[in-house]
Amino acid sequence: MSDTTSTDLVTHGHGEEAQFPLPPHHLRITDTDPRAARRAERQVAIMFALSALLVIAFVVVYFTVPVENFVNLGPIGIVNASNLLLGLTFGGAIFLIGAGAIHWAKKLMADEEIADERHPVGSPQEDKDAALEAFQAGLAESGFAERKLVRRTLIGALALFPVPLIIFLKDMGPPPGTVLRETVWKKGDRIVVDVTLQPIRPEDLRVGTLVSASPEGLTELQEEQGTMNARAKASIILVRMRPEEIRSQQNDGWDFNGILAFSKICTHVGCPIALYQQRTHHLLCPCHQSTFDLADSGNVVFGPAARRMPQLPITVDDEGYLVAADGFQEPVGPSFWERGA
Asked: pTM for the whole thing?
């Protein structure tokens, strides 16, 4: 490797010589003005120091902000305050290390053009010695040894950087217990259309119709709890088919005049599902293409899902509206280590 000037020519190609003059080298302000170089050095050091402070802030947030706290961010919606602050502090720490390294390279490290001629894969010893020499020269040109302020703040930032990763290990337990096994559905809960909250009568659904629905009163419960956890587990889909098309024997009698209710959450990794093929009665998950046969108890017919779609038994109340005949008889949502499949 050797330094080149604007008149040097680069040779490359498979035995063919292509001559391309390198552009003239332009000095940066930090190459000619020591004050500008010191200013850039301070800027890099500030970024590294702020990164270290954000890691410390991450630790403080993790242990002081309750996980039950939520904040309303308007158009974004209601979010967990702890998750928001942890993401901002750790994300900011990562960004500042990267931004500081880029600023260091652009303003302070040497930027001379270098031409590297091609050579066989097996390098001779003299090339290895030259590479080591070039590495040592690059280390000197980077200013890592000379610029103590940058070096110390970078080492400090990198030393604290793994701390959040270690703290994250605490969130691997304890097991979720029964939290993921229960929903708010219970006998007599009226079924309403999502968003509009309109109660549903059987005559509102034509054959082939699929509707996203939830239990009545879920919105109030969500506002009371300040979380969408209940909705994430209680969302269902209603689908209507001709009674004679239902082949299910496992949950015989759980439909009402051909209307069936299933959980909306895929049993693979929990993606919401609403892609329905009327002719085959198949429900397709858009994430990993797991396919469920709604005419046959929601059993899996294709894809990585290992459990069928949980079915909700339904009937009508005295006013003729669709209601739950009972809660889910099996856990909804994705499979995990305590569910076997």
From this structure: 0.53
Residue 180's nearest CA partner among 75, 265, 246, 102 is 265
Q: What angle do CA 230, 236, 250 make, to 5 degrees?
A: 120
CB 21 within 8 A of CB 8: yes
55, 109, 113: which is closest to 86 by C-alpha?
55
For the cut 60, the answer to whether the pLDDT of residue 315 exceeds it is: yes
d(CA 274, CA 210): 8
Three-state SS for 29? helix
Would you tell me how many other CB atoms lie within 10 Å of the CB of residue 294? 25
Type of residue found at 63: F
Structure tokens at 69: 């706290």
Break the chain into its structural domains and give their ranges: 2-172, 191-339
pLDDT for 73 = 85
- The first and second tokens of residue 244, run together, are 């004679």
Cα separation, 171 vs 164, whole angstroms: 11
82: left (phi over 0), alpha (psi -120 to 50) or beta: alpha
Q: Are 285 and 271 contacting, i.e. CB atoms less than 8 angstroms apart?
A: yes
247-291, pLDDT tens digit by residue? 876 777 789 999 999 999 999 988 999 899 989 999 999 999 999
For the stretch 136-157, pLDDT in tens is 888 788 877 778 888 889 899 9
Q: What is the CATH number of domain 191-339?
A: 2.102.10.10
